[in-house]
Design brief:
Methane Monooxygenase Hydroxylase, Chain G, domain 1; 5-stranded antiparallel β-sheet; globular; alpha+beta; 2 domains; 5 strands; Thrombin, subunit H
Length: 222
């Protein structure tokens, strides 16, 4: 008998950083090598998708409960914090923010939104960063909405109010040295060609994380 005890309950909303805010619709067991292994079945509304995650893998994947209303509002307030200088190398910046997203705390997600919003005021974001920004912003909006009981439309307005003054007060001469003009030209083809590859990688990584145990079981059963 498996010793893993579910940390979450049916009908509880959770944050799955790489997927979005989800609802646990079922906790069930699967027979694996003669052992009962508990799984979460999580419905992700933003993508209209259901994922099955072994209970023992939930923490590794960053799955966590919705924060309190106080923490949600603190994260919202952090959007207007002063921005620290960031690298102008978009590939390095992208990886740094992607790592933050995987860590998955609401403050990490707010940091991504603040960083990329600020960067977009300096220069248009590359495709991959724009997708990361949109995903992080949607995740932040959804969690704050569920935590505070406010509508998505209200939360969108709150986020805009915190972010927009940041752009308005930026000095005309940016403190960040924008030296990625040549980088964009040099790596333009690479970004274009990697767009589909990254989409495929994202899908395969998420599927592999959630279903890794399933694949192993099928091989063992054979």
């Amino acid at each position: 008998m498996s010793t893993e005890n579910p940390q979450f309950a049916v009908d509880q909303r959770v944050v799955y950083p790489s997927q979005g805010v989800g609802l646990i619709t079922e906790i069930y067991e699967r027979d694996i090598k003669g052992e009962k292994v508990p799984y979460y079945k999580i419905y992700i509304e933003v993508s209209d998708m259901t994922v099955m995650v072994p209970v023992k893998n939930a923490e590794m994947l960053g799955i966590r409960q919705i924060v309190s209303a106080d923490d949600a509002l603190k994260a919202l307030e952090s959007l207007s914090d002063e921005i620290e200088p960031v690298t102008s190398d978009w590939k390095q910046r992208y990886q740094m923010n992607l790592d933050l997203l995987k860590q998955g705390s609401i403050y990490d997600i707010a940091s991504i939104v603040r960083c990329l919003y600020h960067r977009s005021k300096v220069k248009e974001l590359p495709i991959l960063e724009r997708k990361l920004y949109d995903s992080a912003k949607k995740l932040l909006e959804d969690e704050i909405a569920f935590a505070t009981g406010k509508s998505i439309k209200e939360v969108e307005g709150m986020l805009h109010a915190k972010l927009e003054p940041l752009g308005a007060i930026l000095p005309k001469k940016a403190t960040i040295i924008d030296d990625d003009e040549d980088d964009d030209d040099e790596f333009g083809d690479e970004v274009a060609s990697s767009r589909n590859d990254d989409d495929d990688d994202d899908d395969s990584d998420e599927s592999e994380e959630a279903d890794n145990t399933d694949d192993d079981d099928e091989e063992d059963d054979e």
